[in-house]
Structures
1.
Amino acid sequence: MNVKDWIGKERTDPPGDIVCERGYVLHWLEATENANPKFWDPSCDISPPSMLSVWMRPLQFVPGREDTSMPLSLHFDLKDAFDLPDGVVSANEITFYAPVKLGDRITTTQKIRDISDEKTTRVGTGRFWTIDVTHRDQGGEVKGVETYEMFSYKR
Amino acid sequence: MNVGDALPPLEVEILARHVVMGASSSRDWQPQHHDTHWAVERVKVKDIFLNTPNQAGWIERYLTDWTGPSGRLAKMRFKMKKSVCAGDTLRFDGTVAAVDNGFVDVNVLLTVDGEVATECRAKIAVPRDDNDDPWQRTGEDWRP
């Protein structure tokens, strides 16, 4: 497997299965025991910025869908290509632009920035890679840009 | 707000419920965030652990506890060095690292038993004056 063939590869996943909605916002606040009155106000029409990546994660069951779709599909393709079954996120950077509003449906574009040589760490032998993810709403407005640094490995 | 100011610390006893709810609310069904057997036998940690987006959520909550509801998260970068597992007491500490025209940079440390689990540098927008609402900033005025 040639690493160079993968660096710079870009892919846009289909639009998210779910739209931004208030039930999820309340679940998020519940999970982090976040009392921020801005988001508990029933008239609030945006989601907390840190929820950015929630809206790209697919449903685990959809009638008629054969395979379980995965978020960050390029990451999982890389794991398959290099035969590295396990993975962890080691760092995450997120830049927030316009807040995601209730009713927005997010589409993400992923791009592989770099892939390391093979390395051995405490958990196993594998590779680090960096993937940039741009989140856009249905109108194409950029809502945020994330960078994930992952380590994928085999024991 | 001045460089060097310390944010009030926060301590949370992380229960399995926090980990699972964090995974659920971020729609992350990787098994290490809900399946103890998988976490222990496959990932070799002591229990299920907080996922990445949920940590982002906790950090936002920690920062806006301090700024109040006008605080608007602009940017964050965090590095996870050690898993935060069910059963851990997670402590948050923060220090103001930079203040620049309505944006404040904060260094946030998440520790368990004095050991750093996650370190974060975050930028959060705060009002410049009584008439400024960071949530209304757009274009040139929003430079995360």
Note: The domain at 3-62+69-154 of chain A is CATH 3.10.129.10 (Thiol Ester Dehydrase; Chain A).
2.
Amino acid sequence: MKRLKLHWNTSIKHLLPWFIPFLLVIGWQTFSSLGAIPERILPAPTAVVKSAIHLLSTGELMNHVSVSLGRALVGFVIGGAIGFMFGLMNGVFRLSDLLFDTSIQMLRNIPHLALIPLVILWFGIDEWSKIFLVSLGVLFPIYINTYHGIKSVDKGLIEMGRAYGLKGKHLFFAIILPGAMSSILVGIRFSLGVMWLTLIVAETISAHAGIGYMAMNAREFMQMDVIVLSIILYALFGKLSDMIARYAEGKLLQWNL
Amino acid sequence: MNPSQKSENHVLLKNVHKCYGNRTVLNDINLGIRKGEFIAVVGKSGCGKSTLLRLIAGLESFDGGMIQIANQSLMGLNQKARMMFQDGRLLPWKRVIDNICIGLSSREQYKAMAALANVGLRDRKNDWPAQLSGGQKQRVALARALVHDPSLLLLDEPLGALDALTRMEMQGLIERVWLESEFATILVTHDVEEAVTLADRVILIENGTIHLDQPIDLPRPRQRSHPNFSIYMEKVLDQIMNRKTLINYAL
């Protein structure tokens, strides 16, 4: 009996979060079928699925998705690495903090999407303009949270480490980095959101491949189903990256009961 | 070991002075602690007793006088001492056994298991610190200090946050490991009963100076029911509270 209840509880835990999305799709399909939502305002879910299958079979969808994923990933790695490095350096070394932090805080307050005209003139509309914008957007949340995480590591633990003979890289890897980890992971989760947002805007404005380009191209031909498909793809990828980040959190912070 | 044989000073403080800004915390402290001796430092909060411990640990610098550890002037961290803090300071992201391994070289890691067994927590080695009770955390912290074979154990109110029963249990444990080894111990506490239970000498600090240096001559393990136990306690308390008493200390 207890086992059954336990089993029931875990399935509820996994299924319930999907209840509202499921209900929305059902409602959407019902109203579309009844003709309450005109086809040219919002196509039915079945129409979106149909166009997805069609684009998959021509290979077009895979092409756009892989281009977008590639940009997102490369931009995230470059921006994330730079933000992380500066966060570490400025968190650990006083000199580096004094030298760089003020400048980074100034740059941080420029909305990076405002740079789009400049970026197009610098890089044209090829890959690097998108990667540059994603890197820039991702850099600051990771920087701020890494920096803050390192600054707020319990001083008592650092003192204990020193008193027990830890110094240099041993002190860093045993105490400072793990102490900052939960804050760093918050930065990563936040920056994943910024990553998708930046990519959507950048691809919509100027591109010749990618999910955003697919949507803009479909607008020219009034292909509502393809536009809706791209929006759903962004939602799914956003959710997927958040799930990966949460999984990493669960693995890295398992001590945090 | 018989206390009278441990005559050589392990720790020696001469005219030690410590200020924070223009506030003097410790003023002209002279104190010798013999090898293997157990000292308790008591006093009201803010009297400078914890600062004294931190100076001996080498965690803070002093402004005058000198401190010698085993006949050598103390410079920087006191390598021969290990400190146990009031809040335990276990690393929450390391399992119990890995917490004990902090600062051990890879060749010495086998000692950690024995140290953990010595405090009675052998079967908790793979738990996270968050899974332990307050008393168990302090046991792990004690094992972590002892695994380095220190010649001086510094205890900064390590039992202050524990309930009365766990506290008495821990006092018994500390006395046992101290009797088994040969390290000197300095216990900072605000609990006079704890000081009399554990220490060979009770030092009272008031306004940054030593006001009383009272040897406690009671057989170990100490019994609170011993007739002289309460007389020692009264004597120290009278000094702390600055009260005149009618008890004639027949010690």
Note: Chain A touches chain B at residues 156-157, 159-166, 174-175, 178-179, 181, 253-257 (CB under 8 Å).
